[in-house]
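Incident log, entry 3
Record: Glycosyltransferase WbuB (387 residues)
Problem: checksum mismatch between cached and fresh output.
Input:
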Amino acid sequence: MKDILIITSYFPPETGAASNRMFHLATGLEKQKYKVSVITPLPNYPKGQVFESYRGKFKQTTTENNITIHRLWLYASNSKNKILRLLAMLSYSFSLICFFIFNKTPNKVIVQSPPLLVAFTCMLFLRRKKRRLILNVSDLWPIAGLELGAFKRNFNYKLLEKIERFNYHKADLILGQSKEILAHIKTMFPEKEMFLYRNFPDFELPTLSKQQESNPKITIVYAGLLGMAQGIYKLCKALDYSNITFHIYGGGAEKEKIINFIADNPNLPITYYGEVPREELHKLLLNYDITIIPLLNRIYGSVPSKIFEYARLGLPMLYFGGGEGETIIEKHQLGWVAHVGDYKNLNLTIQSIRKEDFTLKKRLEIQQIGKRYFDFNSQLNLLTKLF
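Fresh output:
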């Protein structure tokens, strides 16, 4: 049996796209007869507090689904204070260094990036000729931080660029979740071995049935992180509600602002349901007409994994994020595209949508597209040939 280690900053019981992505990768490799171990912090995302059942622990090692999981201490924080956020990353890096010193590391290691500093720690301390380092790049930092307004082009930004280059240079194989990510890395290291590794989900396709026409308005649902990048609070304020109802699931930094906005505007048809387990959420999503996938600003290299998840659910999508995601929606006819950041165009797009666009036949077509083009196991089979 071949040993492989996955190092990630997010893993269940944490929720979200990053956690799901790394969980599916770990379980998929285990099914392919790899002996999988995972290093991850004590669960703390997205609230920035270690989950209650893990508090007071410096380290915990468990075996779950035949996967060995090492949960390491960190100073948990999701503060907007950059120093506290940096301290959180450095604390996890310190725990990683201690782990590397006192434990044997397999010859195949998959490192998740971002966070850049965590990836840098791994690439620095694990590099040696016989070890194959595989860097899984899900977002381009520091570019994404610059586009989100988190960074400015100063000395710190240039330092992060150097760290980014170091990580790519030391990787033996680079996985990128978008073509834009791989194109960006190729400008620096054109000879580097790379693989387009999309964030495909791994779950059984649900059985679709004809919906009951109980609501004359179009029901739009958002499910996911309520963070600054998604801009759900601004979306709540900008939507034209004349022909829609808006339903929100999830948690994050904007949660309280959204709850307060709904309370201050009881006449608007917005409902917030809180956070719901993923399996339950999949069942709930099938009750809505369409889902919206927004980004406050276009982020180079970003392709929301929701696209692939919702396709397999057979759920029509309204994409409002720009970039490569637009191309995927349009190419596979998965729904509608509105110009990122243009709320007037978004409302005009919504006005063009009709109830007859959500027939069972159309949903089944979307689901079959998801099954054919966004298959997790087919992609994993191609990836493991490169290991």
